[in-house]
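Schema walkthrough. Field components (list of strings):
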Amino acid sequence: MSMSKDVDPIVLAVPAGPIAKSRRRGSLVWLFNPRLSIGLVILVVMGLGSMILPWFAPVDPSIQASYMRNLPVSGVHWLGTNSLGQDIFWFLVFAIRNSLALGVLVAVGVTLIATIVGLSAGYIGGRFERVVMLIVDTFITIPLLPILIILGALIRGNTSFFTVGLIIIIFGWAWDARTVRSMALSLREREFINMARFSGANTLQIITREIFPYVSAYMVVGFINVVLFAINTEATLAVIGLSKVEVPTLGSIIFWALNYNALFTGQYVWLVAPIVATVTLFLGLFLTSTGFNQAFASKRGVS
Amino acid sequence: MGVLRYVAKRLGLYLAVLFIGLTITFMLPRLMPINPVDGYIGQLQSRANGTLTSEAIAEMRTNLEQLYGLNGDIFTQYVSYLKRVVLQFDFGPSFTYYPQPVSAMILNALPWTLGLLLTATFIAWVLGNMVGLVAGYFHKKRAASVLEFLGILLYPIPYYILAVTVLLLLAYIFPIFPLSPTFPVGQMTPEKIGMIFYNSLLPGITLVLAGFGWNILSMKALAVATTEEPYVTYARLKGASNWTRMTRYVFRNALLPQVTALALSLGMVFNGALLTEMIFSYPGIGLIMRTAATGGDYNVLYGAITLSIIAVATAGLVIDLIYPLLDPRIRHK
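Field assembly_structure (string):
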């Protein structure tokens, strides 16, 4: 175990998996360990479900007073209705869809920025690297929530759901950039990079053709982790009322439930349903990411 | 000279973090489409039902701009901002609780946050590392994977979900704790202290649970890797007992990256503590921030965020400065 400062909790959290025994060329069997399979099943079910089901929604669940308030669980309203006259089941379906969409959007942006920054810092090195890493370390150290709270307070009411995603991208790329850069550092010293260099490849070619293929496996894992991070951050802002709370997300549903004192009035379904959904989704994302990592680690023979 | 270089490098990073952090807080409101002064005047205007004359408004605007250091070009503003914040820790008065100074409000809330945060982080760190060590050292045994499963289950759950779940379980289904806890202020009596302790348990449990999962997973991974090291095999051949090998050989070496990881994750831990305070109405910095954010009390917000940046950066610095004491390789380089 290297004692470097680049301790990535996610990479650390992955135990060494067993080396796949049957490794036929072209077969993808090595990829599917139990963790990854369970994680992917959860993600596919929740992802497809939240994308397809909204087509069948009777009304847009974000519209208030569509139904009678505080109806109990029944055949018509599977999870009852809330104090705003919205159907909790459909609100939850839309919430999962919106949260996932935001997570993927943010992850695309963050991965893009982190890869460019991390790869160039790790590969170019020198003074450029020192300055970039100083900025990266600063962004990691600064507590994100207070900054998001100020931004939320300043632009509240004038914000769109999209802007919230943009803000999370701006303040969320640093962790990934650090990971990408430490991988680039270890790759820089490898023989085949020197080989490419001596063969006359320029910096851009080396980055795109030699380093990128190696880093891409980690990027899949990093991507999923950013999805987790983004959903979590938006939900956190929503729970304290500083996101676009009219848009159904996994956080805004809890915001409304807490705001209408769902526990005092005994409407525990309003809280339990999003809790169960969030825990399942996050477990799915986490298992998928560590499962991928395990599979790649055993393929590279690092374990 | 290894230590000196290490300390100098770390101090440099610390100053850079403070500088960039304070610059961001300075720039944020100036890049926003909304002017806080306009916002505040608008609020007053609507409270006074639009009876304010334009002269009064102009006068108030000059006053406010002076108060918030909005005079002069942006560079002068920046220098005076840094001077006020760094040297005097002065953020002006609170809007909502005028004329109470922001710094006093924040300093009152600070012990609450520190008390809860430090206790919970310490407990989570110790418990998580112990469980992770056992899970990692005996990773070939089936029972160890049960311990790891606990970590996998807890780690990805966000703070707000943990908080709401703890509330649901321990205040609603099993009504051990009150649904809306109260925290008495003023003169402390033994009775009040007991009440504060009792009501702090729920946010405390949330924070411990959140830190627990992460510590289990990372310690387990580190312990597994360390167990495979040749010096551990050597210790076994030498006849050292299981206990000695686990504590003296594996734990001591796996601990080092855990200390660095703690320093790096401080920001996240702090975020979680703020959120937990907001959900449980615990009277720390987090609650102040929430009230200020909903009430548009920008001075208080700036004070709280500046303090957060300074606190997290300083805590990280302290941990990193302790590090050479634990790692002989840096001391003797």
